[in-house]
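Lecture 7 notes. Example A: sequence first, then its structure tokens.
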Amino acid sequence: MGRLRLSVNSNSWHQQVGIFSRNFVGQHGFYPLNSYVTVRTFSLFLRHSLAAAETAAEKLPSKLNERANESAILARGLVHRGEYMKAVAIRNCVLNVFCCALLAASAMAQRSAAVKPVAGSYDIANDVSVQGTVLNYTEKSAALPIGTHLLVQTASGNVDVHLGDARLLHLANLKIALGANVRLIGQPKQIGANSVFLARLVQVGTKVLAVRSEQGFLYGPAGIHAEANKALTANARADQRAGAR
């Protein structure tokens, strides 16, 4: 079998490879695997592989930079979240301390008020008595202070009297009718532009009901069991037993 040689004078390397391959196939019916064609093909494959590797290497820094940027953003987000949670914890701690201090101050103020009356508060020593005829009776008055109000005609003029919770009056079975004669013990106070008589004791006939404590606090329905109303409730029970007989 004769050896075919490649010419290097007239054609390019690719052209020579093509000519050589066609001639060889024409003579032998197969490609010369051990010829220069195989070497050239492998060389081209290496060149393409190297080119692809160089392209990948050029793109690698940008990919790494993208990953680095993503990691940095994530890290900053985690740092910010940690700072936010820390700020929330500090805020909650401050609020808890403030609430505890407020509750402690309130408790101390209540103890102080129980031991020593505050200036301007209700003082039983300033109680006065008012007696007159009922001109008007309103259980749910819109005038301040809210609650039951009486308009009583006295020798010195009409007096707006505040009795507080009407439920206490009902529990005591204390009926105040228009035209009835009442006696009130309490103190006049200026509330806004109006002068109001804050009743502590209300007497209708022989019944005497305490609607305020000696410190000036209004009684609710539970005030029927207050020490000042024990005589009234005892008399009411006695009347009930007598009626039952």
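Example B, a different protein, same format:
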Amino acid sequence: MKMISILLALMFAVAAPAWAQVQPFPELRASIAEADAVLIATPEYTYSAPVALENALDWASRGNTQPFDGKAVAIMGAAASTLGTARAQYHLRQILVSLNAHPLNQPEVFVARANERFENGQLTDETTRKLIADQLIALKAWTACLSTRVAPNQ
């Protein structure tokens, strides 16, 4: 299964220069279109997803074709708060629905009190590690399910 992580694509999400209006982020758009699934990993800032991530999704969605159309997407995130990234993820779900993407419903991965779950940059909390593994397994199954369905307009 080919999957990309939007986290890696955030380097493209700066304020778009004039050239981006002609061909918005061609590499990011192509990566999304070619992927079987997309995994978005996000922090939470001011009760939402980072502006850079929202901009990346916005610019990737521009053009004659929609790279997210029918795409399986999973969202996970980590934050120091007790809610993890719940609010950011729910906001991203709204955005993804507008792009006709198909977010994975469960399991949801909200890593709360992330500062207590990492040591030297490594995730040490076994419960969280299992939840992430479960989400990736579910994303693979969701992707397979979506690949066998016929689009309503066909």
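Note on Example B: The helical segments are 6-9, 18-22, 26-34, 51-61, 86-98, 126-148. The chain has one domain: 3-148.
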